[in-house]
Structure to design on (913 residues):
């Protein structure tokens, strides 16, 4: 491992003699520790990354990957440990210091100012001089050069918000390169991309590697690790558990290292006979007034005992569809029949009535919709059902009953820790999700609307959640599942609807679906011209 | 996943940090007092003695605290719904008007046992109604409640001047005040109440309103944390999108929270109009509505904290008055500066010391080296 002495943080001024090892290391971390209160987010982490390689870091949520990268990028300072960049000991106390050391970061959620054009976004914070124009001209020249060198094609004058996600990501990469980054950290870069966009991203990463840029890739997608990295490190529970050369490992081994036990594939779906139609959508359109249709003439049925997966790159109308079906958002034209109740713009419905129809909804965004992070778990566990007689006596909430119910849900869905009083925000993403699923599934719904059931959830919990959804289908529930994870869509769905630009562009039987085909449909490669250059590169 | 914020134990969050903030304010105040050539220790001694050293002083301190409890609770309940009610001053003013009008109309007709509750009810309803207008504008018209409540303070003030100068003034006098209420419609002073039990205490403006204030504290705690409405208000305040998902209508909750908030602020009128002055007059709110914001912030929007913060501000008001009286070089204005510093440090800068305290706490607890597995 890294030949670092684990004594004191090294001062920036204190220059170490770079050891002429071959090949030299871009990053050497030694004995990094970081605690938040009593929680050791990083415990004695060692990591060495050679120059000019793509190094993957995998681990479940909460394994400490993001903390480690935040330390490297100066968001946090380590409690202990050493950092060397290109052999030199450095102290990274701010992102400014990280940039000065040649480290750039592309965040999972882009840090872009939407109304600015690409050029303005790139120089943001590095404007140089009091007047903008000089800096802009200088930047444009430098960026043209960078674009050529790495094949990063972006229109510098385009308005950022109008770019597809894949191009926004390129803006982020350019931003880092513009600041002379030679070490690039990418945090879950493919989460928002189509398979095709992912391919393009990997082409760019390969070009960067050829030019000697070192890349650290944080992901939970093992397939991507196998596809592009040279070496990989696995984190678990705040510790570094293994380093491997990618050539000498396998997805199975990495998964086992991540979870700490064997992972069994439980996709025995069994067959269920389809029941009657539970949900019918006819000619549903929304956004007519804005002249830009969010949803454009949707028509589909969902039967009892089937899972209909709605695939698509996020932002193509799936979220609006879920919100309309769950009564949160009104719509402009069309008709919905939800468990017998007819809904139209003239006869709208509200979320309470939707729940009364035995329709449960697991929203896409658990932090912003699914629960109230500052509520206790037990308070979050009755959200939406707090009016029910079982939770209240008159105007008063029956806290004793709420507490015991929450405990029961936590047992049934293995939510940890089993503490109904814990603040919802202090639970991990996977446990928050399980609590929400428990709340909704426990009401024995006849229709379940579920968005991104396993986003940001550990592998172990994914198995469990998938099992629950399949069990629900077995019991004759009609499930509408929106997901951006193709694997998930293909594993669970009886039928798959692909959405693009607010329309359903394809319907595929679950058995016949393969990833390449779905990917092409999601990018609407068959249909009209896609906005943005180079998407088919 | 750790989000970087270390959860501090409650006793630090609601106990130590507010005390530290007050200490910082006092240190800065002390420097100012040194600068004008007086002894800060002596000043503190005079203030404490003035506020708690003798019966009359205690009475005044508690009387001021009563007002702060009402306005502090008013700010807190709005805050739980995610609203910043800066209109406590105007709502208190109009609350007093409600109490005054009711009593002026009824005190010679009905027995005291009816007039007093009706006066209290009217104070709450008038305050609530006054708060409901900005609430409506926020909930259904999207006008920002901070702006509208501030404006409604001025409207309330202008309205009161008009009414007292032109309508309610007792004929044949210069000062814009109504006639005095009948004796039965006046809330008894605490020295009177204690007198009934044979306990003799010095006279002060402290009256039966303080009992009502404490009942309001318990009531509000119950309302916020034990009822469905409180649950819904908090859901809207913390996360409006989740509330909508849960079938809660945010506009309704905005109306409800502001109604309760306005009623609580209106109860200042009970203390002032029914308890102390026994007539309608101008400017009896004296800034209590604004100080309520600092009280609520310092008390972390919790009734218990608000009671504590109210006592502190009662001390500052009463002890400050004493200080200006005792030490000629410390003027009334300087006392306002000291009060302002406390408001600044415990209100506006309430979270300034949190990072340092967290830092120290983390350093200290690490010594004991609690090893927890990353149960994230």
């Amino acid at each position: 491992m890294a030949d670092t002495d684990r004594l004191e943080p090294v001062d920036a001024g204190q220059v170490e003699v770079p050891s002429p090892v071959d090949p030299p290391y871009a990053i050497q971390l030694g004995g990094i520790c970081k605690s938040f209160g009593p929680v050791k987010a990083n415990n004695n982490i060692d990591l060495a990354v050679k120059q000019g390689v793509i190094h993957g870091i995998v681990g479940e949520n909460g394994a400490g990957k993001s903390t480690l990268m935040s330390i490297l990028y100066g968001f946090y300072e380590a409690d202990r440990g050493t950092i060397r960049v290109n052999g030199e000991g450095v102290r990274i106390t701010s992102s400014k210091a990280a940039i000065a050391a040649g480290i750039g970061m592309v965040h999972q959620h882009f840090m872009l100012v939407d109304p600015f054009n690409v050029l303005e976004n790139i120089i943001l914070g590095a404007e140089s001089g009091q007047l903008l124009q000089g800096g802009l001209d200088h930047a444009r020249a430098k960026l043209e050069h960078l674009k050529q060198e790495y094949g990063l094609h972006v229109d510098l004058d385009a308005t950022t918000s109008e770019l597809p996600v894949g191009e926004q990501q390129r803006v982020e990469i350019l931003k880092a390169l513009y600041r002379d980054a030679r070490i690039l950290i990418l945090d879950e870069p493919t989460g928002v991309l189509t398979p095709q966009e992912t391919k393009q991203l990997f082409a760019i990463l390969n070009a960067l590697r050829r030019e000697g840029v070192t890349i650290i890739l944080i992901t939970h997608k093992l397939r991507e690790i196998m596809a592009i990295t040279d070496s990989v490190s696995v984190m678990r529970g705040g510790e570094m558990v293994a380093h491997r050369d990618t050539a000498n490992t396998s997805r199975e081994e990495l998964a086992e290292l991540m979870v700490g036990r064997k992972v069994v594939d439980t996709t025995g779906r069994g067959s269920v006979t389809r029941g009657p139609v539970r949900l019918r959508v006819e000619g549903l359109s929304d956004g007519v007034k804005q002249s830009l249709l969010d949803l454009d003439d949707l028509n589909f049925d969902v039967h009892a005992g089937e899972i209909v997966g709605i695939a698509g790159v996020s932002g193509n109308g799936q979220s609006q569809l879920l919100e309309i079906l769950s009564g949160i958002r009104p719509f402009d034209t069309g008709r919905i029949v939800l468990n017998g109740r007819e809904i139209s713009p003239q006869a709208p419905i509200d979320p309470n009535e939707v729940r009364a129809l035995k329709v449960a909804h697991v929203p896409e965004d658990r932090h912003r919709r699914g629960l109230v992070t500052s509520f206790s778990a037990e308070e979050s566990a009755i959200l939406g059902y707090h009016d029910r007689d079982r939770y209240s006596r008159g105007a008063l909430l029956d806290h004793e009953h709420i507490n015991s119910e929450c405990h029961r849900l936590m047992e049934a869905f293995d939510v940890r820790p089993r503490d109904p009083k814990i603040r919802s925000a202090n639970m991990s993403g996977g446990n928050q999700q399980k609590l929400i699923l428990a709340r909704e599934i426990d009401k024995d719904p006849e229709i379940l609307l579920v968005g991104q059931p396993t986003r940001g959830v550990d592998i172990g919990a994914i198995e469990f959640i998938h099992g629950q959804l399949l069990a629900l289908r077995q019991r004759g529930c009609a499930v509408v599942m929106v997901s951006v994870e193709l694997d998930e869509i293909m594993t669970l769905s009886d039928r798959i609807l692909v959405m693009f630009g607010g329309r359903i562009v394809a319907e595929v039987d679950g058995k016949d679906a393969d990833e390449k085909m779905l990917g092409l449909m999601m990018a609407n490669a068959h249909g009209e011209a896609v906005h943005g250059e180079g998407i088919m590169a | 996943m750790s989000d970087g914020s270390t959860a501090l134990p409650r006793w630090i969050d609601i106990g130590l940090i507010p005390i530290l903030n007050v200490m910082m304010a006092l240190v800065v105040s002390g420097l100012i007092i040194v600068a004008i050539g007086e002894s800060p220790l002596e000043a503190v001694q005079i203030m404490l003695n003035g506020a708690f050293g003798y019966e009359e002083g205690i009475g005044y301190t508690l009387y001021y605290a009563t007002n702060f409890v009402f306005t502090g609770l008013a700010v807190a309940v709005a805050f739980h719904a995610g609203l910043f009610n800066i209109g406590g001053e105007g709502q208190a003013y109009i609350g007093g008007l409600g109490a005054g009008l009711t009593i002026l109309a009824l005190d010679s007709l009905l027995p005291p046992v009816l007039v007093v509750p009706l006066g209290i009810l009217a104070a709450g309803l008038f305050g609530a109604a006054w708060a409901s207008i900005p609430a409506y504008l926020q909930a259904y018209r999207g006008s920002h409640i901070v702006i509208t409540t501030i404006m409604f303070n001025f409207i309330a003030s202008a309205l009161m001047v008009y009414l007292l100068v032109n309508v309610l003034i007792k004929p044949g006098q210069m000062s814009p005040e109504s006639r005095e209420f009948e004796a039965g419609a006046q809330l008894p002073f605490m020295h009177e109440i204690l007198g009934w039990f044979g306990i003799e205490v010095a006279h002060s403006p402290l009256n039966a309103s303080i009992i009502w204030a404490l009942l309001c504290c318990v009531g509000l705690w119950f309302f916020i944390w034990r009822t469905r409405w409180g649950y819904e208000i908090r859901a809207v305040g913390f996360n409006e999108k989740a509330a909508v998902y849960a079938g809660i209508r945010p506009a309704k909750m905005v109306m409800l929270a502001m109604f309760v908030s306005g009623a609580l602020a209106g109860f200042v009128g009970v203390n002032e109009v029914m308890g102390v002055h026994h007539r309608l007059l101008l400017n009896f709110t004296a800034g209590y509505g604004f100080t309520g914001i600092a009280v609520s912030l310092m008390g972390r929007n919790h009734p218990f904290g608000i009671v504590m913060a109210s006592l502190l501000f009662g001390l500052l008001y009463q002890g400050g008055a004493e200080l200006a009286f005792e030490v000629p070089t410390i003027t009334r204005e300087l006392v306002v500066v000291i009060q302002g510093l406390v408001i600044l440090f415990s209100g506006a800068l309430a979270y300034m010391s949190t990072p340092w305290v967290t830092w120290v706490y983390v350093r200290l607890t690490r010594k004991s080296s609690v090893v927890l597995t990353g149960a994230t």
Remarks:
- Chain B has one domain: 60-363.
- Residues 1-5, 369-376 of chain B have pLDDT under 50 and may be disordered.
